[in-house]
Amino acid sequence: MDTRGAHVMRMAHPTRLLCMAAAVYCFISPAHADTSGASSSQDAVDTANSPVGVWQTIDDHTGQPKALIRISQEADGTLSGKIVKGFGANDQPDRKCDKCTDYRKDHPMLGMTIVDGMKRDGDKYEGGKILDPENGSVYKCQMHTEDNGQKLVVRGYLGISLIGRSQTWNRQN
Description:
The chain has 173 residues and is an alpha+beta fold.
């Protein structure tokens, strides 16, 4: 092969990797695996694998439990999540969201809705937003359950979901 051909191969390599990663993601994405025989527009919540319930969040820095979030189904079929308990030393019941920049600014964190507008799409939920009350940032959100509904993978991102961060929350009984 001449050197010009090798140069073209090197230049195309990152693009090929990105395309391959996107193809693999689409192939293994739960949205494309409808094993229940149900329509992806189904509004009923599968109780075993539903995000509805109470979830324990984990602090990214310490690995310790951070809060309990109750995810509920709204009348319109979307899911929302509220802080029902904080575990940190500074999580007093009257703690306010002083870094929030929207309507939640200076409102108590306890009882605050931090996840809203999540719509079911196959085996995952998306189309909603999630608030990080520690820094006041609001992100687009996707979530899906794993381990027979015992873990909830929550992804917050800006723009496209490949550019973001995921957390795994643990179901509380």
